[in-house]
Amino acid sequence: MIDRLAIEGYRSIRSLVVDLAPLTVVTGRNGTGKSSLYRALRLLAAAGQARAVGELATDGGLDAVRWAGPERISRAVREGAPTEGLVRSGPVALRLGFGAADGLGYAIDLGLPVPSDSRFDRDPDIKQEHVFAGLQPRPASMLVERRGAVVHVRGDDGRRELTRGMAPWSSLLDEHAGAADAPEIAGVRRTMRGWRFHDAFRTDAGAPARRSQVGTRSPRLDDDGANLGAVLQTSIEAGFEREIRRAVADAFDGSELEIVGVDGRMAPALRQPGILRLLGADELSDGTLQFLLLLAALTSVERPSLIVLNEPERSLHSALLAPLAALIRRAAEQTQVLVVTHHAGLADALDGARIELEKEHGQTVVAGREGLLDQPAWGWPTR
Predict the structure, then answer these.
(1) What is the pLDDT of residue 88?
(2) Mind telling me which residue stretches traverse the membrane in this protein (predicted)?
(3) Residue where a domain terminates, one of 286, 302, 332
(4) Which of 91, 139, 141, 275 could disulfide-pair with 132, CB 3.0 to 4.6 Å?
(5) Do residues 41 and 186 both lie within one domain?
C-alpha cells in the first residue's frame, strides 16, 4: 500500500506531500490541481514501467509540465508582490515518490538534459532514483541509490557499486530489475506495475464496450473497456457473482445482468423489470454503461495493489452515486483505492480519508494546512 505520496515541480504542484489511506478521496473546486495530482501519479506509475521519459516527451518535454512559478513562495509574494522577474537559483527538477510504512518506497528526480546537438532535446534526464524502506528516502533507509550514471546498492556487507553505466534516459527499474543482488529493485517495480488507473471510459455509440468481443478469460479490464463482457464473466465464474448481481440490482431497480455469448464472442446485457427482452450493450445509456465498466474494474479477478479512479461520476445519474460508493467501499476492503472527484455527494458517500485541494498563490496546496511544515515528513535527496 502507498502510505505517502510526494510530488514536486509538476504543473500546479510546487511541493506537495500527502498521506494515503486504504480509501482516499481527493476533492476540490475546478482548477485547484486535482488533475495535476492524478497525472503526477500516472507519471510515477509510468516510471515503474520505464516510460516516464517517453511520457514527458509526449507532453512536450519537461518545460511544458514543470512548475512555472517561483522556487519558493516568499513573504513578499504572499503579500502580493509580482513574481515576474524572479530568478531561479536551483536546478529545474521534477520529483515524484512514494513511501510505504511496512514496505518499499521509490523516488525519481528528472531534470533538463545537458545541452547537446541531439534532436531528442525534449527528453528529460533521470538525475536520480532511489529505492528505500519506509515512508521517506532517508539516508539510513536507502537500499538502492542511483545518481547520474552510477548505481549503488546496500547489503549486509555494506554499500557497493552495482554499475556506473546508466544512460540518462534509462531507469534502474528496467535495467536492473533482474539483479540477483538487488531484489528490492524488482520488488518496487512489481508494486508499481500493479497499479491500475481508470479515467474517462468511452461510452459513446462507437465505444468498444458496446460491441461484442472475442471472449477469453480476462482477469483485468482493458483501458478501453473492450473486454467488459469477458471481465464480468471471468469474475462471475471466479466467485464474485453475488457481489456483481447485487450491485446491478441496487443500481438499476432490480435489473439482472446477463453475459450474452455467441460464437465465442461476449457482451453484457441487462434484463430490466417490465421489459420483455434483453437490452444489449449497444442500447444502454452512457451512465448505465459507465457503471458496468466501473463494476468490472472494481470486481476483476486481478486485485491490484492500487486502483485510481478519476472522476468516476461522469455520465452517472445522481441515483447511481450511492451504489457506486458502496461498490468502491467494498473494493477498498481488499485493494487500496484513490478516488479523484469534484462531486461533493460522492465524496461524502465514500466516507474515506479526505484530501481537499485548493489554490494558494498559484500553487496547489491541501486546504487547512499552515505551510510546508504542516505536511507529512519527506526529504528529497540532494543532487
Answers:
(1) 56
(2) none
(3) 286
(4) 141
(5) yes
The label of the residue with cell 473494493 reads 331
> Cα separation of 172 and 379, whole Å?
21
- Indicate whether 117 belongs to any domain: yes
Same domain, 266 and 165: no
Confidence (pTM): 0.92
DSSP H helical ranges for the chain? 34-48, 52-58, 62-65, 75-78, 172-175, 183-193, 228-235, 241-251, 286-299, 321-331, 344-350
If you search the block for the grid coordinates 434484463, which residue do you land on? 271
What's the CA gap between 269 and 322, in Å, rounded?
A: 22
Looking at residue 177, its pLDDT comes to 79
Q: What is the rounded distance in angstroms from the CA atom of residue 24 to the CA atom of residue 42?
A: 16
71 and 101, same structural domain?
yes
Evaluate whether residue 27 is within a structural domain: yes
Closest CA to 151 of 121, 184, 118, 120: 184
In sequence order, the 6+-apart residues with CB closer than 8 A to the CB of 41 are 5, 197, 308, 338
Quote the domain boundaries for residue 169. 10-194+356-374
Cα 123 off chain centre by: 22
- Measured distance between the N- and C-terminal CA atoms of the chain, rounded to whole angstroms: 28
Q: Indicate if 190 and 208 belong to the same structural domain.
A: no
- Residues 253, 148, single domain; the answer is no
Do residues 41 and 134 both lie within one domain? Answer: yes
Contact yes or no for 279/289 (Cβ under 8 A): no
pLDDT at res. 321:
96
| Per-residue pLDDT, 61 | 87
Residue 341 covered by a domain: no
108 and 56 in a common domain: yes
Q: Which residues of the chain are modeled with pLDDT < 70?
A: 72-90, 372
> Residue 283's closest CA among 207, 201, 199, 198?
207
Q: CA 282, CA 212: separation in Å to the nearest integer?
A: 9
